[in-house]
Amino acid sequence: MKIEQLVNSFSPHPAIKGGVSQTILGSQFPGKPEAFPELIPHTLDLGVDAKSIIFEIEARDKEKPVVLLAHGMGGCSGSGYIKRIAAKLGALGYGVFMINHRGSGAGIGLSSSLWNGGSSEDLSLMVDYILKKHLQLLVVGFSLSGNILIKYLGEGRSIPDGLLGALAVNPPIDLRVASHTLSTHRSCWLFNRYYMKLIGNQARALIKNFPDASDPRGNLSTIWNFDVSYTAPVGGYKDVDDYYDQCSGKNYLKNIATPTSILCAQDDPFVPPEVFRNQSCNVDIYQPKGGGHMGYISQQRTPHGDRRWMDYVVLEWIQNMCKREIFR
Q: In what order do the strands lie in the sheet with 137-142?
């Protein structure tokens, strides 16, 4: 089914209405993937004192492109949505690579700094690593990784021919707006607290293994304060505004040539629909009325037997991209 038709057909579960409820339920009740395939670990050097652990589901259908799944802030390759979608792709024969950004997941404590919304160089290394082993790749970036993916595609670097397409799911393409909303809006206090708890876990592991590194625990009260005290200075930016200006995906959309799509609900609690308006670009932007931030729990069951509409759209997008490549 075409993505436009899917977007127009989405109806949230009647008991889970509103962006906040969809976001909370989608995150806190991740579900259990079916018959998760065996994982092959890869260790990738990202630079001095920085390593990523990437897990691979080996492709059963060698004719299909492999898929890279990139997690959101505070998440990892073990996040519920990553595991669900990876299991569904594996069942269809796709090869899947589930990354862990520096300091995350199986790579916690293996890097002397944490990733941020501008970590496109790390993503580039991951893409190049996978394309040395496989001819064709599709990339799906969730939340903050979606922003990184857009930056990677539009910042002027050479994009490998083997990267066939990209999908960004609920990307906070205006980092200043997303950070301010998460840090100050009453409706988002629970999300801010949740993310800071996860970042705090990563920070403790970092300092345990790299006691001389900059300490991310300086101000874990809000996302904004964390970006002021840690993200901006450690990332080499002049200040937090410089970080937001240089790394917000909205500034790179117009330069993207790779076939790219964005999926983001209009009721996302911290990615307002206005940030996508008046964007002159070749990117397809899909904005269903409901779904929250990566919630998308639907009224009707999808063809996969559950109510995880986000999973369904991601898989449909991947299969549509494969058909597009065959008939190109």
A: 40-47, 50-57, 96-98, 66-70, 137-142, 163-169, 260-263, 284-286
Cα separations in angstroms, 268 against 49, 71, 85, 224, 259: 36, 17, 21, 19, 24
pLDDT at 281 over 50: yes
The answer to whether the predicted template modeling score (pTM) of the entire model surpasses 0.85 is: yes
Residue-wise DSSP of 213-259: S--GGG--S-HHHHIIIIIHHHTT-SSHHHHHHHH-GGGTGGG--S-
Residue 248 is encoded by which pair of tokens? 């917000």
Give the CA-trace dihedral at 318, 321, 323, 326, to 10 degrees.
Answer: -130
| Cβ atoms of 321 and 138 closer than 8 Å | yes
Evaluate the CA torsion angle 62, 45, 231, 245 in order and state its sign. negative
pLDDT of res. 32 = 74
Cβ 192 vs Cβ 182: under 8 Å: yes
> Are 138 and 165 within 8 A, CB to CB?
yes
User: At how many degrees (to 10) do helices 189-209 and 175-184 cross?
Assistant: 110
**C-alpha torsion angle, residues 122, 43, 106, 113 (rounded to 10):** -40
Fold of 3-174+253-326: Rossmann fold (3.40.50)
Tell me what pLDDT residue 157 has. Answer: 96
